[in-house]
Amino acid sequence: MAVDEAILEAVGQNHVPPTLRLYAWEPPCISLGYAQVSVDIDLQRLKRLGWEWVRRPTGGRAILHTDELTYSVIGPLDEPRLSGSVLESYRRLSAALLAALHLLDVPAESQSIIGVGSGASKGPVCFEVPSNYEIIVQGKKLIGSAQARRKKGVLQHGTLPLWGDLTRITQALCFQQEADRSMAAARLLARATTLETILGSRITWEAVSQAFINAFQSELNLDLTPSQLTPQEQKRTKELVREKYSNSSWLERI
Fold first, then answer.
1. Is 174 one of the annotated active-site residues of the chain?
2. What is the pTM of this model?
């Protein structure tokens, strides 16, 4: 999360070009949405599992980051592919995400409009409910995304579960009763899926990331150049880790 924000700041200052970042997490980590209450996490259970947690700069509910590909797209406000309203930029980026999945023979589609029942948004788990322009397969969410906008830049990041048990996240969240935990797990399986479940076999992280690169280049007419973080971005990342993303004033702010 600190790296994403450091790139966002550098992009806003015109120090680096618009950036597509592809990454994974080690060890597993739960991220809470910007406005989600921190008491949704059961810290004792989290510790026993050996997982970590962080608060995202974007909205939404809790996500367990493991066995996945995470992407972030970061650019200035006047970047044509990110300009306009949040939904307009979501739509453009969704086209690239769809193209990447189609390269992998995944029959995905973009969720343009969804009606959410009064009880559906109350749970702590993000992948229970698809939202506008998120990616679904046979009615189940496959890629979840969120966006943050600053004065000079836009950050959209999201996650594609590659394999594994999606219900693991419920083991580190707080529920009033164990029956509620079981019901949350059942809802999650009914509303979300993994790449392995769709295809019937595993695809490597490297193969999926290459599909993302190819699709973003072709669908959005980009010429992507591999690069490392600049010294400024590395320095700012360390500052953000210390001052924000490992600081209780940010983690427990709600």
1. no
2. 0.92
